[in-house]
Design goal:
The complex is a heterodimer of chains A (1066) and B (356).
Chain A (H helix, E strand, L loop, with lengths): L8 E5 L11 H15 L3 E5 L15 E3 L5 H11 L3 E3 L4 H13 L2 H5 L2 E2 L4 H8 L1 H10 L7 E4 L2 H11 L3 E5 L9 E3 L2 H14 L5 E5 L5 E9 L5 E9 L12 E3 L6 H18 L3 E9 L6 E7 L4 H10 L3 H9 L26 E7 L20 E7 L2 H11 L17 H8 L6 H10 L4 H8 L3 H19 L4 H9 L4 H8 L3 H10 L4 E5 L13 E6 L13 E5 L10 H16 L3 E6 L14 E4 L4 H11 L3 E3 L4 H5 L2 H6 L9 H8 L1 H11 L6 E4 L2 H11 L3 E5 L9 E3 L2 H13 L6 E5 L4 E10 L3 E3 L2 E7 L9 E3 L6 H17 L3 E11 L2 E8 L6 H8 L3 H9 L12 E2 L6 E7 L20 E7 L2 H11 L9 E6 L4 H13 L3 E4 L1 H9 L4 E3 L10 H6 L5 E5 L8 H12 L3 E3 L2 H13 L15
Parallel strand pairs in A: 1-2, 1-4, 2-3, 4-5, 18-21, 19-20, 19-22, 20-21, 28-33, 36-37, 36-39, 37-38, 39-40
Antiparallel strand pairs in A: 6-9, 7-8, 7-9, 10-11, 10-13, 11-12, 12-15, 13-14, 15-16, 17-18, 23-26, 24-25, 24-26, 27-28, 27-29, 27-31, 29-30, 30-34, 31-32, 34-35
Helix pairs in contact in A: 1-11, 5-6, 7-8, 13-14, 14-16, 18-19, 20-30, 24-25, 26-27, 31-36, 32-33, 32-36
Chain B lengths: L1 E6 L4 E8 L4 E8 L5 H5 L7 E5 L3 E2 L18 E3 L2 E2 L12 H7 L3 E4 L3 H11 L2 E6 L6 H10 L6 H4 L5 E3 L5 E6 L4 H9 L3 E6 L4 H6 L4 E4 L10 H12 L4 E4 L1 H9 L3 E18 L5 E13 L8 E7 L5 E6 L4 E4 L14 H12 L1
Helix pairs in contact in B: 8-9
Classes of the chains: A alpha/beta (1066), B alpha/beta (356).
């Protein structure tokens, strides 16, 4: 069936800010879909509040609205733009929920706008618990039996019916407390009695326990004719019990026979057909390890994280095909873009093995619980491809960039057999390392399987890796042994460590014996047809398919690896734009990256894609084949920057700012020298190596001081210390995160924080705009609300900032991008940080100023001058509207993480508010971040002494808005003394009703809790913040943020928002 | 032990010997299924051929005897990237290594199967030798390779005597040209009483048993070599008994009616081939294993018209006989291995018998 000719203008809904569980994969899907729609001549209107995405670029959609994803906004937008259709299936859960709200309100029908890609009925059937259950029953697909009970008798009766063990989940308790797994009658009664008591509504869900079953997923596509295909299936190494986003996943499934594989495939096809989905869908199964019994765990009637992974694992562009299906095409009419010969109506066949490992944020949240559960905690993931599982696992491990390079990287050697058995019961991100040690110590597969339920096929693969470690340690390193170690992807430095040789020696031995990586193609069809898109992965042994191309000049673009806090999707935006810019300049482009969620690893972004770890050895193997004319490192965040030295050693010229100058910005001594020559002040500080030196420096500077390791991104390990004890503690933490570089101790200045991104051609600079942070210095720039143009700087200060930027860019001989952070304290401008590379704010500032910063930087890198490119130099004229970038956090997902903001970055994403006035922009930004107030008009304040004065002012303003304020002892006293009525409430440890009761009572809009600087030793504050977050209460930990919020609430009316087409900004 | 795979074009792959150490010459074909290696091994259509699995990890779930498609493995040789040393499935009763050894089937592992597949794709299916003889003389081997042909393999794989699968429903006569068990099982599961006849049974005997329907199974080799069977099929065609045929059976019915068949460059072997039902426009993902295909050019439209077509390359995948109650498909609705999507064709056959 050809395209529906009635579809001419489509509104695509994005997924909003990046949070845990809804991340870059939706930028990838959305971007691919928008391009696919435009290819068909459709006018695309895009709505997404996330400015860091590629999909919100004017190249991707015709009209781009970076506005909050709320009903009010969508309704206004539909009235303004009059699309004939809305496509919600590419915007994750956020997109689907919005579509549902619109449909239920009858708005779409009223306006004659059709929903494409899905129907409201389909969404309801898949998302509504009861409807889903009944649909599955109708088509005979099993789901885990469950029942809500209100008495022990009912629970027992149901458990006897479905059989033990059963999972018990009390309704409305915090973080699932009071729940558990009951294996027999006695346990059931005990847990159930307790759970019923704890539940606020006296209800407990009793569910058949499927923990420990195999977890299998299928990605299915269906068109309007009813044709179905499965793109791929995937097997989780971690059995049911760990969220699939936090599991190690392998594609295709490894331990299923054809009978199991086809049984579940058939089921997935039945389900997508019964739900009437046209497009993509993901079905998750629990498969009993010792029978053919299975349960459907969940269905996602849209593209998802798993579909992004499946696309990258197979080469099948799910989002692109889903978009075409939404327009009315059938699968047999859509070309397979990889082969160019076959059609979308086939199933990819893999001739390799894919392993995905989640990137978990426990290096950021040291206090958080590492346990993995059904609540996803990963911020990102890495994927690797190899022709054997061992190799794919080894490559994925080193792609994580978490100081892990093998199964020896977490040290459990100190544990004895009993200790290991105990540790095996702990389900966390280090489990495969524990298993490796258990195998080394001789614990049998059966015993490990008994505890972990991980299939013995995977255990054997881990065992094979440990056997290789042992062989390398004990045997002579023959060519054969080295060949086998490389086949399993042991990096040279690991082989060197195990054999007691030098890494260089191993490399030499490899080259002499022809043991080098070769590259194979991902072609969707296991070589059955010749493929046209060069998408490669490495293996050792065999024929090389990646032919060196000649002719055009060739540039290597290094990606930014897995998404983590501090290095997010912004860097993928930069890498992709850099690639496009070089291609426009006539270059052949090559991307190296390992992140399956991103646009940069889509098959048609660069001329060639190498899906590989970003380590020196892996990059060198590519360089040996491709011999690029240069490499660009300034767009791939710290991941790419870290490869600079290695690239130089390989003889690859670094395009843009030279390596020495990158070093000069990071090396304290060199940098101080440069600042001195430029006559630019910075907060006084010292470089130290020990805690003693640090304390000495701190006392000399006077507390508070900022303590941080050099060479890190996102302020990792950075803290404000107010005492010697703090310094001791911080240095301890810094040393734990494998610090080889010196530690910096600086005087902390509590001024206004200013940020600037600039392009420099060696002579002139262009600053698109100056950004000002709402929060005072001390809170990481990524966690601060950032306003463009700066609102409170006078012309003299602005001129100084421009002048300093120019001087710094010139002295560092920057060719390309530079990012500088300043503190303005009593009209004096200090430099606090310089990054001679692209930064987190580049996508945002590009969009709101309309200046294509990355393409400009790319041109400058190639030798063009800003003047000849038609841009003025210095500070660009300010736009006539205001843009507010708001950080978004995922604290509720990470139990035990402290949410108070400080110099270490904690946010996972951002959204934008843009409007003619500051107040409206601010309101939109809060709205986009999900802070929708007022609701109950009750709030709690508990602030540190230094903030009491400001608390009075802010409290008064909230009171004027009708808020009832609760406050703890001293805060209440201060408020009341200042004339603000505050109800005094007991602290956590005091008798009820206390703060916690109030928070758990679900009638609080907001908690303002400012922890004292330094290590917050109060368990109280921590408890308040955690409990508030986990019950869905907004928590602010800085007075500046609170002031911004009250300002926005005082000034805006959501019905009167003005919507701005970013694509028209230039 | 080392093993070598020597191709007709002179390419030599060196790997490790698996299964038997015997030396064999065979036709080398590749299969792209990611699961179902046991079903592939026990599919009689592979008689006279050596199979390369393009999926690199084979043997992961061991040997589950209830999944075998005939009483023994048929390929002359087995070629894989890597064999798993253990099996991770609750039903596994054996490892693939032992299974190959028990049946004296030689094989080779540890070679670049993707490179091999690309050669077969580019140059077409060719003959090859698997040997463990390190002192092989290539100039002596190549002429031998050129001479090899699969020959008349149907007689090797068909049953010796007829047998019956009891059922209460329609009575189906199933001609075993190299049958996969699941064809009989698919009918039997739908209630049919299935009588399986050896390939060289006379048409008269089958007709005399007055079956409600006749099925022609899959099987190995060049269809044009089955001249005697084609003659019998002509007689079956002349009756009014509903006939359903799969793979070789489909090709033989076409040949019996004046169509031609030809050898494809490298065939279709795998579980991901899209076929379009020309009557409904629906596309199904099918299991396939064939090296020859019906040439519809010379097909008399008054006799038969295409019923299915391959979406990838447009080759014929099925015929509907206009004057008769007969339809035939090139692909495998019985799956095993592969998707179960086209299983509805057995229902269609049952319906044909009922209407008749």
């Amino acid at each position: 069936m050809p395209k529906n000719p009635a579809i001419k203008k489509v509104l695509v809904l994005g997924s909003g800010p990046i949070v845990i569980g809804q991340a870059a994969e939706f930028d990838y899907a959305g971007t691919q879909a928008c391009r696919s729609l435009k290819e068909e001549g459709i006018e695309v209107v895009l709505l997404n509040s996330n400015p860091a995405t590629i999909m919100t670029d004017k190249d991707i959609a015709d009209k781009v609205y970076i506005e909050p994803l709320t009903m009010e906004v969508v309704e206004q937008l539909i009235l303004k733009e009059r699309p004939d259709s809305v496509l919600p299936t590419l915007g994750g859960q956020a997109g689907l929920n919005l579509a549902m709200e619109l449909e239920e309100a009858g708005f779409l029908k009223e306006q004659g706008v059709r929903l494409i890609g899905t129907t409201a009925q389909t969404i309801k059937k898949a998302e509504d618990r009861l409807e889903f259950k009944s649909t599955m029953e109708q088509i005979g697909e099993p789901v885990a039996a469950s029942l809500v009970v209100e008495s022990v008798e009912d629970g027992v009766a149901f458990a006897e019916k479905i059989g033990y063990p059963v999972v018990l989940r009390p309704a409305y308790t915090l973080g699932g407390s009071g729940g558990g797994i009951a294996g027999c009658y006695e346990e059931l009664v005990e847990i159930l009695e307790n759970g019923l008591r704890l539940s606020r509504v006296g209800q407990v869900l009793v569910e058949r326990c499927i923990a420990g079953w195999k977890e299998i997923e299928y990605e299915v596509m269906r068109d309007s004719m009813g044709n179905c295909i499965t793109v791929c299936n995937m097997e989780n190494l971690d059995p049911v019990g760990v969220h699939t986003g936090d599991s190690i996943v392998v594609a295709p499934s490894q331990t299923l026979g054809d009978k199991e594989y086809q049984m579940l495939r058939r089921s997935a096809v039945n389900i997508i057909s019964a739900l009437g989905i046209t497009g993509g869908c993901n079905v998750q199964y629990a498969l009993h390890p010792n029978s053919f019994e299975y349960c459907v765990i969940e269905v996602n009637p849209r593209v998802s994280r798993s579909s992004a992974l499946a696309s990258k694992a197979t080469g099948y562009p799910i989002a692109k095909v889903a978009a075409k299906i939404a327009l009315g095409y059938t699968l047999d009419e859509i070309k397979n873009a990889i082969t160019g010969k076959t059609y979308a109506s086939f199933e990819p066949m893999l001739d390799y093995c894919v392993v995905k490992i989640p990137r978990l944020p426990f290096d950021k949240f040291i206090s958080a619980k590492r346990t993995l559960t059904t609540q996803m905690k990963a911020t990102g993931e890495v994927m690797s491809i190899c022709d054997n599982f061992e190799g794919a696992l080894m490559k994925a491990i080193r792609s994580l960039e978490q100081h892990v390079d093998s199964l020896m990287s977490y040290d459990f050697t100190a544990l004895d057999i009993d200790g290991l058995k105990k540790q095996l019961r702990v389900v966390d991100d280090r489990r495969i390392w524990v298993i490796a040690e258990a195998i080394r110590k001789g614990i049998t597969y059966e015993e490990i399987h008994e505890i972990t339920k991980i299939d013995i096929w995977f255990l054997d693969k881990i065992a094979i890796l440990t056997e290789m470690e042992r062989a390398l340690q004990t045997q002579e390193l023959t060519t054969e042994l080295l060949k086998e170690a490389k086949r399993m992807e042991f990096p040279d430095h690991v082989v060197a460590r195990l054999t007691g040789k030098a890494e260089e020696e191993i490399k030499q031995m490899r080259y002499e014996n022809g043991i080098t990586a070769v590259y194979k193609m991902v072609d969707t069809c296991a070589a059955e047809f010749a493929a046209e898109t060069p998408y490669y992965y490495s293996v050792f042994g065999g024929e090389n398919e990646a032919e060196r191309t000649n002719g055009r000049k060739k540039v290597l673009v290094l990606g930014s690896g897995p998404i983590r806090i501090g290095q997010g999707i912004e860097f993928d935006f930069c890498s992709v734009h850099c690639t496009w810019a070089f291609a426009k300049e006539g270059f052949e482009t090559i991307i190296v990256n390992n992140n399956p969620e991103t646009v940069s690893t889509d098959f048609d972004i660069a001329d060639k894609l190498y899906f590989e770890p970003l380590t020196p050895e892996d990059v060198e193997s590519i360089v040996r084949i491709e011999k690029p004319d240069g490499a660009v490192v300034q767009f791939g965040g710290q991941t790419a920057i870290k490869l600079t030295e290695a690239l130089l050693k390989m003889g690859v010229p670094i395009l843009g700012t030279s390596a020495e100058n990158v070093d000069a910005a990071e090396d304290r001594e060199l940098f101080d020298g440069i600042l001195e020559t430029c006559g630019i002040p910075r907060p006084a500080g010292h470089t130290v190596f020990t805690a003693e030196e640090a304390k000495h420096a701190a006392n000399e500077l006077g507390y508070p001081v900022l303590v941080r390791p050099s060479y890190v991104l996102g302020g990792q390990g950075m803290q404000i210390a107010i005492s010697d004890e703090d310094v001791d503690e911080f240095i301890g933490i810094i040393n734990r995160i494998a610090q080889e570089h010196p530690i910096l101790v600086d005087k902390y200045l509590a001024g206004k924080e200013i940020e600037v991104d600039a392009v420099c051609d060696g002579e002139d600079i262009l600053i698109p705009g100056i950004m000002e942070h709402i929060e005072r210095a001390g809170i990481h720039s990524g966690d601060s609300i950032s306003v463009y143009p700066a609102q409170s700087l006078d012309d003299a200060v602005k001129a100084t900032i421009v002048e300093y930027t120019k001087r710094l860019a010139r002295s560092l001989h920057v060719i390309g991008m530079i990012n500088i952070q300043f503190v303005v304290c009593r009209q004096e401008v200090y430099v606090i940080e310089v990054n001679p590379r692209s930064s987190r704010t580049v996508p945002y500032i590009s969009k709101v100023t309309g200046i294509p910063i990355v393409p400009l930087a790319a041109k400058v890198i190639l030798g063009h001058k800003l003047k000849e490119l038609g841009y003025s130099t210095g500070l660009a004229p300010e736009a006539d509207y205001i843009a507010v970038k708001m950080p978004v956090f995922s604290f509720e997902k990470i139990r035990g993480a402290d949410i108070s903001l400080g110099p270490e970055m904690k946010s996972t994403g951002e959204c934008l508010g843009i409007a003619k006035t500051f107040n409206e922009a601010l309101y939109k930004a809060f709205l986009g971040a999900g802070i929708r107030l007022p609701k109950y008009k009750n709030m709690i304040m508990t602030v540190k002494d230094a903030d009491k004065e400001e608390a009075v002012e802010i409290g008064r303003r909230f009171e004027a808005l009708g808020y009832k304020i609760y406050a703890t002892g001293s805060t209440a006293k201060a408020l009341n003394a200042g004339g603000v009525h505050a109800v005094r409430i007991n602290k956590v440890e005091q008798e009820s009703p206390n703060l916690l009761d109030l928070i758990l009572g679900h009638e609080i809009d907001l908690v303002i809790d400012t922890p004292s600087q330094g290590v917050d030793h109060s368990r109280d504050g921590f408890l308040i913040r955690r409990n508030a977050i986990e019950t869905g209460v907004n928590v602010l930990t800085a007075m500046d943020t609170a002031r911004a919020l009250v300002t926005s609430l005082e000034n805006t009316d959501s019905k009167k928002l003005t919507l701005l087409d970013i694509a028209a900004v230039s | 032990m080392k093993a070598f795979l020597i191709l007709e074009d002179g390419t030599v792959f060196s790997g490790i010997s698996i299964g038997s150490g015997r030396e064999i010459i065979s036709e080398i074909v590749f299969n792209t299924s990611m699961t179902g290696y046991l079903e592939v091994l026990t599919d009689p259509s592979y008689a006279g051929q050596a199979v390369v699995m393009t999926y690199p990890l084979i043997g992961n779930y061991g040997i589950c005897y209830e999944d075998i498609e005939s009483e023994r493995p048929w390929p002359d040789g087995y070629i894989v990237r890597e064999l798993s040393r253990i099996s991770g499935n609750f039903r596994s009763e054996n490892t693939i290594q032992h299974f190959l050894e028990e049946h004296d089937i030689p094989g080779i592992s540890g070679i670049d199967t993707r490179a091999l597949t690309k050669i077969l794709r580019e140059k077409g299916t060719m003959n090859g030798m698997i040997t463990t003889n390190e002192d092989y003389k290539i100039e002596e081997i190549l002429p031998k390779l050129a001479k090899y042909s699969t020959g008349k393999v149907v007689e090797r794989v068909t049953c010796r005597e007829k047998y019956v699968l009891e059922g209460d429903g329609a009575r189906v006569a199933l001609l075993d040209l190299g049958i996969k068990r699941n064809i009989a099982r698919s009918l039997n599961r739908r209630g049919c009483e299935v009588t399986v006849y050896p390939a060289f049974t006379k048409a008269e005997e089958i007709i005399a048993s007055r079956p409600d329907g006749i099925m022609l199974s899959n099987g190995p080799g060049d269809p044009k070599e089955c001249t005697e069977i084609i003659e019998e099929i002509k007689k079956l065609y002349r009756t009014d008994i509903p006939i359903f045929a799969i793979c070789l059976g489909h090709q033989l019915m076409a040949l019996a009616n004046g169509a031609d068949t030809y050898k494809m460059k490298y065939g279709h072997r795998g579980g991901n081939h899209p076929v379009k039902d020309l009557q409904t426009g629906r596309v199904y993902i099918s299991s396939q294993n064939h090296g020859y295909v019906v040439d519809t050019e010379r097909l008399d439209e008054s006799v038969a018209v295409p019923a299915f077509v391959n979406v990838n390359d447009g080759t014929n995948e099925g015929l509907r006989y206009t004057e008769k109650n007969i339809f035939t498909v090139q692909f495998h609705p019985e799956a095993c291995p592969g998707p179960l999507d086209s299983g509805y064709l057995f229902d269609r056959f049952l319906n044909m018998m009922e209407v008749n």
